[in-house]
């Protein structure tokens, strides 16, 4: 393990509201808690950070949260020592003044570009390769991933054991849900919905409302709320709103902190998630899921979607894999998914088994924080 005096700097520019800060905040906390490292997390948008960590003082230039030194990334950079390990999250551009300080160190720091998560084949070949160089400092690509030879996924120590214990404890789940104001009917399927705006939502809600099985749909505050409101025929939806349409109960939840969101995913029978952070957390829930991938220019996000689906559905029968592919592809294209949902429901036990098996398979790999620490140890 590196020296307790080893300092790590993580830089985060908030691009997609909560995904970037969600990943870097989890990583920073884990490096402190499990690897005894001194971590500074530089964030340019503390208001977005406050949504997932309500204790954040949005006006503070420097503060400590859960052992992490949180620094507001200023528009005017002041002189400060560079860390031993510098992580530029999601290819963000470091301040030029900080890069100069890195280059002035007697021993240059390990400079890592922590890239976006992808299941594409080329990721394994590029992981750990040199990127650009600034004076004496070499930047290196570091890719999270689903295959051996990548940096793995964020996973705290003991997470899967905690999840399994919680999912076996009906009373613990009931108490957690009640704490959020959720009263689940014994025969209702519980679904969480966290997504970008999506024109395909209405067809799914139509099918859920007309279904023979009652559905309780939990919608945390977010961008999909406008589409939900339009389907309900109301002007807007506020936190706490509950609306019942035939077999479907829709309930709006507040934006909750990360550990609560984990428990929400663990409670649900099916989770619709978006971006990167909630995508990974839904996989650790071991339940069937639906991913709304972040759209990119020239539809390059569809390559990422196809690559993940090829891995995720590998253990399914051809019919079940076809159903899941159809559901995910239609959802990411903003197309109606009612029929695709009904097709997927025909394979429900198999989809449940596959979700748990995928979770356990990914859990065999080193987690992202441990992989970063080991990379540093190999580097020195």
TrEMBL record:
Protein-arginine rhamnosyltransferase that catalyzes the transfer of a single rhamnose to elongation factor P (EF-P) on 'Lys-32', a modification required for EF-P-dependent rescue of polyproline stalled ribosomes. Belongs to the glycosyltransferase 104 family. GO terms for molecular function: protein-arginine rhamnosyltransferase activity; translation elongation factor activity. It comes from the Bacteria. The gene is earP. Keywords: Elongation factor, Glycosyltransferase, Protein biosynthesis, Transferase. It holds the Pfam family EarP. The keyword Isomerase does not apply. The lineage of its organism: Bacteria, Pseudomonadati, Pseudomonadota, Gammaproteobacteria, Pseudomonadales. InterPro entries: EarP. It catalyses: dTDP-beta-L-rhamnose + L-arginyl-[protein] = N(omega)-(alpha-L-rhamnosyl)-L-arginyl-[protein] + dTDP + H(+). This is Protein-arginine rhamnosyltransferase.
């Amino acid at each position: 393990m590196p020296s307790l005096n080893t300092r790590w700097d993580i830089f985060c520019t908030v691009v997609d509201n909560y995904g970037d800060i969600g990943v870097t905040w989890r990583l920073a906390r884990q490096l402190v808690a499990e690897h005894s490292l001194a971590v500074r997390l530089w964030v340019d948008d503390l208001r977005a950070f406050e949504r997932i960590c309500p204790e954040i003082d949005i006006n503070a230039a420097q503060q400590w949260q859960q052992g992490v030194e949180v620094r507001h990334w200023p528009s005017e950079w002041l002189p400060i020592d560079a860390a031993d390990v510098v992580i530029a999250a999601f290819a963000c551009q470091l301040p030029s003044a900080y890069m100069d300080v890195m280059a002035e160190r007697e021993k240059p720091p390990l400079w890592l570009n922590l890239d976006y998560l992808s299941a594409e084949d080329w990721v394994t070949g590029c992981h750990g390769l040199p990127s650009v160089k600034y004076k004496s400092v070499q930047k290196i690509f570091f890719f999270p991933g689903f295959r051996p030879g990548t940096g793995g996924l964020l996973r705290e120590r003991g997470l899967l054991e905690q999840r399994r214990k919680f999912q076996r404890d009906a009373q613990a789940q009931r108490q957690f849900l009640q704490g959020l104001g959720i009263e689940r009917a014994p025969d209702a399927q519980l679904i969480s919905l966290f997504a970008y705006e999506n024109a395909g939502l209405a067809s799914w809600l139509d099918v859920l409302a007309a279904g023979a099985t009652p559905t309780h749909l939990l919608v945390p505050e977010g961008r999909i709320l406008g589409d939900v409101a339009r389907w309900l025929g109301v002007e807007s939806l506020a936190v706490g709103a509950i609306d019942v349409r035939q077999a479907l109960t829709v309930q709006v939840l507040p934006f909750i902190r990360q550990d609560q969101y984990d428990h929400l995913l663990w409670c649900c029978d099916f989770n619709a998630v978006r971006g990167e952070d909630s995508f990974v957390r839904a996989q650790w829930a071991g339940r069937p899921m639906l991913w709304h991938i972040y759209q990119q220019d020239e539809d390059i996000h569809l390559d990422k979607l196809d690559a993940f689906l090829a891995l995720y559905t590998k253990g399914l029968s051809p019919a079940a894999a076809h159903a899941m592919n159809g559901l995910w592809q239609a959802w990411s294209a903003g197309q109606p998914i009612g029929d695709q949902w009904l097709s997927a429901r025909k394979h429900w036990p198999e989809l449940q088994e596959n979700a748990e098996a995928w979770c356990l398979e990914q859990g065999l790999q080193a987690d992202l924080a441990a992989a970063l620490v080991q990379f540093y140890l190999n580097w020195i």
